[in-house]
Amino acid sequence: MRALVVEDDARIAADLERALTAAGFRVESAADGDTAWFRGGTENYDLIVLDLNLPRLDGLTVLKRWRAEGCESPVLILTARGGWTERVEGIDAGADDYLPKPFRMEELIARARALVRRAGGRGTATQQVGRLTVDLNRMTAAIDGIPVALTPLEFRLIAYLALNRDRTVPPTELLEHLYGDDDAREANAVEAVITRLRRKLGAGVIATRRGFGYHLEGGAAPGAA
User: Fold this and answer.
1) What distance separates the 2 farthest-apart alpha carbons in the chain?
2) How many H-runs (helices) and E-runs (strands) does the chain carry?
3) Got the DSSP string for 203-223?
4) In 3-state terms, what secondary structure has residue 155?
5) HSE of 80 in the Cβ direction (CA atoms, 13 Å)?
């Protein structure tokens, strides 16, 4: 899962990045409104954490521009403005959730996971697809109830497939959500992770639709894209 943190306070931004990374997200950041507007408008994120008090372009303006331009990423607003009018304004601008500062990181992570699940049409943290069980909160996977040890990268990939079980996911999309802008994005990187996962999960869990991408057995129909 890929997240964008938009926060101009370096300490808070670093804390958010550590917490979201530990929760299974691949985190990128922006420290001002102009950079955030560009990144959110040109990249696809599973979650955006957006502070309202930003230099160069305020958070509400950024959010309104994203929505006007067709950005559908779930947005969780963070702000020191605690009044109900600001909350209404943020939600009217297109925010999906709102968390006033100061906040507990545990609550932010819970809200972040809930937003990602809802965006994927999934109501619970435990995703069952065929023989595979993925627990998004505990960041664990099991086959027929038997736990399988996965690396963070492997878990992000299998979790993304579970959240998008109703369709075939192209390798380019997986590459975008697994790796950040600072990582080398080689075309065979996804295939290498898929190969490792197949060794660990066994046959009949991750299927390939040649020329289109990957899906979980028990999820997308072979013709779905």
Assistant:
1) 54
2) 8, 11
3) TTSEEEETTTEEEETTSS-TT
4) helix
5) 6
Q: Check residue 202 and give its pLDDT.
A: 92
Contact yes or no for 155/139 (Cβ under 8 A)? yes
C-alpha to C-alpha distance for 51 and 30, rounded to whole angstroms: 10
Compute and round to an integer the Cα radius of gyration of the chain: 18
Give the C-alpha distances (Å, rounded to integers) separating 164 from 46, 71, 158, 215.
12, 18, 10, 8
Q: Report the phi/psi class of residue 202: left, alpha or beta, with left for phi > 0 and alpha for psi in -120 to 50.
A: left
How large a percentage of the chain has pLDDT more than 70?
Answer: 90
Q: Look at residue 29 in the predicted model and tell me its pLDDT.
A: 94
- Its pTM stands at 0.73
DSSP H or E run through 36: helix 33-42
d(C-alpha 27, C-alpha 21), whole Å: 6
Identify any residues that bridge with 185 across adjacent strands, giving them in sequence order. Answer: none
What is the DSSP code (8-state) at residue 128?
A: E
| Residue 110 pLDDT > 80 | yes
